[in-house]
Write a sequence for this structure.
């Protein structure tokens, strides 16, 4: 008897109409339910399938492993300012010491001194460095970020995201993803 595979372990890689992932980090994935719904509504083309079938009273369908949207979605040119995107811009490491753990973000000009929460004033910092810097300016404590903070493009974030492949990559996805092969598990 074959091994039973749960549909929950079968996410679907979602590609834009140009066959590029909608996003690399996080990787554009749908649950099997969302993928089936999109197939039934004729919103996607199925590119590849799992060897897993789900049944309803009137039909059975192989779960899609890769789909492409029928209609092209123009990627945003200006990424949203979010904590996650700041971390991604800074490659998930403290801009003061390089530590990848216990991350938060730091205002170069502290908010208590009128600093604003903008791409150009915020850097990723580990909690110990953030605590050490406190509400002082970088030059007052001689703590300077490794890179000057900047407003990233979507390309910058996608490019940085490629350095952090997800833990799970189905073999049917590999032709559409462009991470460094030596980084893959």
């Amino acid at each position: 008897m074959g091994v039973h595979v749960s549909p929950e372990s079968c996410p679907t890689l979602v590609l834009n109409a140009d066959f590029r992932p909608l996003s690399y980090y996080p990787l554009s994935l749908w649950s099997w339910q969302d993928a089936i719904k999109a197939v039934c509504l004729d919103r996607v083309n199925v590119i590849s399938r799992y060897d897993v079938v789900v049944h309803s009273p009137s039909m059975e369908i192989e779960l899609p492993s890769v789909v492409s949207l029928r209609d092209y979605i123009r990627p945003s040119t200006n990424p949203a300012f979010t904590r996650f995107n700041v971390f991604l811009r800074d490659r998930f490491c403290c801009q003061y010491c390089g530590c990848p753990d216990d991350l938060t973000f730091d205002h170069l000009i502290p908010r208590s001194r009128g600093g604003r929460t903008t791409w150009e004033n915020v850097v990723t910092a580990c909690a110990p460095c953030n605590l050490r810097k406190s509400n002082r300016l970088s030059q007052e404590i001689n703590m300077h970020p490794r890179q000057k903070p900047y407003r990233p493009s979507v390309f910058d974030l996608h490019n940085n995201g490629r350095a952090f492949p997800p833990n799970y990559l189905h073999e049917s996805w590999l032709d559409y993803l462009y991470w460094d092969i030596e980084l893959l598990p």
